[in-house]
Amino acid sequence: MAEPVITGGCLCGRVRYELSGPPLDMGTCHCRNCQRWSGSPFHSSVAFALTDLRFTRSQPVWYESSSIMERGFCPGCGSPLAFRYLVSIEDPPTANPGTVWISVGSLDEPEIRSPDWHFGVEGQLSWVKFDDGLPRTRCDESLGLTKAYASWGADQPES
After folding, report:
1. What is the pLDDT of residues 43-63, one digit of tens each?
2. Residue 93 to residue 71: CA distance in whole angstroms
3. Which residues, including other chains, have CB under 8 Å from residue 101's CB and lie 6 or more apart?
4. Could you count the other beta carbons within 10 Å of the beta carbon of residue 67?
5. What is the CATH number of domain 6-125+132-151?
6. What predicted TM-score, i.e. pTM, was given to this entire model?
7. Taking Cα atoms as reference points, which of 120, 98, 97 lies closest to residue 21?
8. Domain extents for the chain?
């Protein structure tokens, strides 16, 4: 049986997408980079195979936000929609160029699943409380992320 199609899009409706495969991973990042690009205290995203993503109305504009990642925004309303790694990161294994991370808030039905982890917890704001028992990792504890940034001669995400 085929996976149900998952749909979503931006605030103004200019960009719409379909995802034909299952979600591979889901997490919440608290690093300053994700806070800044999402405009919120943390960003939750869900990973899919890039080949499972199809834009059905317009496409996001992609910006290289760091040496290892690009982020997609609606060209009309600016909604943050997705990000893609430009290089492979070892942890999590879904952090690679063949995966697209979709902003959970852009999904038509954001209760797609529960997150698996928290990342960049050194940037978590003091008034944001999570008592979900999920694994919590600092950016500097991710050997794959550290190596990827170092190979590009760049610093890790700001705390």
Report:
1. 999 999 999 999 999 999 999
2. 19
3. 45, 46, 47, 82, 83, 84
4. 14
5. 3.90.1590.10
6. 0.90
7. 98
8. 6-125+132-151
